[in-house]
């Protein structure tokens, strides 16, 4: 299958399927075997084929959630969404974030102070060029869905504190009932 993601996306490794996390930490002898083992031994509750994920998510969300791309800032309308409600994983519908902990920042991704309990997992990821100099040549903490492993975004220190910086294309917003 040949895919041609838009130029606004940059190629990123998805650790769960590529083993990139193990390669990233290979220079750390104490932790390398622990990280590699935990990544490869973990089985997500929701597992689907590439074709099934593509059919469900569409090209853009597939590139972000299953291949680790980052969306262009402000490309998702959710970045400035302020209504009450809940944010769910687009891959498996797990309730990942609550609007009460959402923060609108001009950087243009979807920011939260916290995730819901037991909703996300974290891993070591590389730099994200879209973020600019803030993360150049540094490793980042990746945030992904606990249930399906879908890549959601990263933990960043921004606006005076640690935030979950999430791709809107990885989320489905469910407004609170009026
Ligand atoms: Zn999920």
UniProtKB/TrEMBL annotation:
GO cellular component: cytoplasm
A Pfam family of this chain: SelR
UniProt-listed Gene3D superfamilies: Peptide methionine sulfoxide reductase
Signal peptide: 1-32
Top EC class, one word: oxidoreductase
A biological-process GO annotation: response to oxidative stress
Reaction equations catalysed: L-methionyl-[protein] + [thioredoxin]-disulfide + H2O = L-methionyl-(R)-S-oxide-[protein] + [thioredoxin]-dithiol
Domain MsrB: 50-176
Molecular-function GO terms, alphabetical: peptide-methionine (R)-S-oxide reductase activity
InterPro entries noted in UniProt: Met_Sox_Rdtase_MsrB (IPR028427), Met_Sox_Rdtase_MsrB_dom (IPR002579), Mss4-like_sf (IPR011057), TAT_signal (IPR006311)
Classification via SUPFAM superfamilies: Mss4-like
Keywords per UniProt: Oxidoreductase, Signal
The keyword Translocase belongs to this UniProt entry's keyword annotation: no
EC number: 1.8.4.12
This protein's name: peptide-methionine (R)-S-oxide reductase
Organism field: Litoreibacter albidus
């Amino acid at each position: 299958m040949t895919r041609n993601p838009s130029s606004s996306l940059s190629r990123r490794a998805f650790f769960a399927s590529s083993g990139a996390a193990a390669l990233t930490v290979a220079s750390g002898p104490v932790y390398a075997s622990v990280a590699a083992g935990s990544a490869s031994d973990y089985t997500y509750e929701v597992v689907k084929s590439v074709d099934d994920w593509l059919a469900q998510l569409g090209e853009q969300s597939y590139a972000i959630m299953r291949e680790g791309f980052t969306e262009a800032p402000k490309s998702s309308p959710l970045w400035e969404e302020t209504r009450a409600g809940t944010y769910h994983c687009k891959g498996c519908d797990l309730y990942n974030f609550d609007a009460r902990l959402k923060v609108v920042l001009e950087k243009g991704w979807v920011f939260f102070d916290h995730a819901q309990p037991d909703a996300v997992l974290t891993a070591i990821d590389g730099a994200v060029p879209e973020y600019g100099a803030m993360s150049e040549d540094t490793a980042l903490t990746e945030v992904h869905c606990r249930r399906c492993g879908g890549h959601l975004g990263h933990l960043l220190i921004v606006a005076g504190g640690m935030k979950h910086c999430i791709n809107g294309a990885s989320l489905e917003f469910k407004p609170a009932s009026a």
